[in-house]
Amino acid sequence: MSWCCGRFCSDDELQWHLALKAHNYGDFSFAISQANSQFEDQGQVFSTPYATFIGVYDGHGGPDASRFLNSRMFANLHRFVTEDGGVSIEVIKKAFRASEEEFLQMVGRSWQSCPHFVSVGSCCLVGVIVEDMLYLGNLGDSRAVLGRNRIPGENEVVAERLTSDHNVKDEEVRNEVINQHPDDSRILVHIRGTWRIKGIIQVSRTIGDYYLKNPEFSRSPLYQRLFPSATPFNRPVITSEPSVGRRRLRPHDLFVIFASDGLWEQLSDEAAVKMVTRNPRAGIAKRLVRAALNEAAKKRNMSYGNLKGIPKGNRREIHDDITVIVIYLDHKFTGENFHCTNAPVDMFSHEPH
C-alpha cells in the first residue's frame, strides 16, 4: 500500500497526516485514519491563484466511487469555472452532475465484468473559497463546520454548521424521503438499530449506488444472483441532487472543518471547534482524529493503545474511516493578494493489483 503526501503517524500505521501547509487564504491541516480493509475515504486540497478547492469523498461498498471523485471532481469544477468565467452555485451543481454522469458511464461500461460497481457509492463534500466567498456542495453526511467569533472582536468562538446531513437517522430527512415515496410503505426500514432506505442505506443522496437509482441494474439477473435479498425497484429510491450554497466570509470567521462522518459520529460540532480554537495550528487535523479515536475506544471500554492494536477491517466495528481537513481563514482577500499555487494535496490509499 502506498500513501500520497504527508506522513504516517509513527505510533499508528493506519493514520496519516499533513501537519500544516499554506493555501491561498491561510493554512490548512489534513489527517486520516483507516478502519476498513480498504480505505474508502478520499480527500484533496488544491490552491490556485484565484481559489482554494477542498474535497472530502466518503465512499461505501468499496473505494471505487470515492477514488473516481478524487480524480474527476476538481477537473469538472475547473472546466465549468473556465466555461462560465467564475465560480457560482450553478457551476458547483454542474460539476456534481457531470461527475455523477461520468461515473454512471463508467459503471455502465464495466458492470458486466465488475458487477459490484452497481452497489458502490460515495458521499461528496466540496468547498471552494474565492476571495471572501465560500461555496459549498454536499451529498450525504460528510459535514463542514465553521468556527467563528460569537461577537466580532471578542474571543469566544462558536460552531456554525454550514451543510445539512442527508442521513435518515435525522427525522427531517426521513420525512423528506417518505414524502418523495408516498406509495411505498416500506421505503424506510428500521434494521440493525437504525433507519435505512429499503433496509439498505442510511444516506439519501450520493454519487453512485446505481442499484438504488437505476431499475435496469436492480432488475438484472446478474444483480439478482449477486444480491439475492435485494428487492428490484421501479424508480430511484435515493438521489444525486446536492445541497448547494454560498456564504460570505467575514473577519470573525476563523476556520472551517471539513470532515467525513467518521469524525462527526464521535465528536460534536462544538467539541471539534473548541479543540481547534484551543490548540496550535500545526497538526490540528491529527489532533481531531485522535480525539475521535479516543471517543470510539471509550465506547467499547478500551484504551486508545488497545485500539491501535486492532488491524484494519476489524477496526471498522469500532469506528469508520476518518478524513479531516481544517482550513484556516486569514482573510487575505483584498489588496496584494497572497498567491499560493501548489500541486494538489491528495489523501488516499491505493491497494496494489
Please give a structural write-up.
- This protein has 353 residues and is an alpha+beta fold.
- The protein has one domain: Phosphatase 2c, domain 1 (4-Layer Sandwich), CATH 3.60.40.
- The protein is 28% helix and 30% strand.
- It contains 9 helices and 18 strands.
- The strands form 4 sheets. A 7-stranded antiparallel sheet has the order 2-3-4-16-15-9-10. Strands 5, 6, 7, 8, 13, 14 and 17 form a 7-stranded antiparallel sheet that branches. It has a two-stranded antiparallel ribbon with strand order 1-18.
- β9 and β10 form a beta hairpin.
- α1 crosses α2.
- The chain is globular, with a radius of gyration of 20 Å.
- The C terminus is likely disordered.
Overall body shape: globular
- Compute the separation of the termini in Å: 10 Å
Tell me the series of helices and strands, N- to C-terminal.
EEEEEEHHEEEEHEEEHHEEHHHHEEE
Strand order of the largest sheet: 2-3-4-16-15-9-10
Count of discrete structural domains: 1
Under CATH, the homologous superfamily reads PPM-type phosphatase domain
Assembly state (oligomeric): single chain
The appropriate CATH architecture is: 4-Layer Sandwich
User: How would you characterize the largest beta sheet?
Assistant: 7 strands, antiparallel
Give the CATH level 1 class. Answer: Alpha Beta
Total helices: the number is 9
Beta percentage is: 25-35%
Which fold does the CATH topology refer to? Phosphatase 2c, domain 1
Bin the helical content. 25-40%
Quote the average pLDDT: 89
Poorly predicted runs of 5 or more residues: 334-343, 348-353
How many strand units?
Answer: 18
Structural class, from secondary structure content? alpha+beta
- Radius of gyration, CA atoms, in whole angstroms: 20 Å
Organism: Dendrobium thyrsiflorum (Pinecone-like raceme dendrobium)
EC number: 3.1.3.16
Family: Belongs to the PP2C family.
Domain PPM-type phosphatase: 27-329
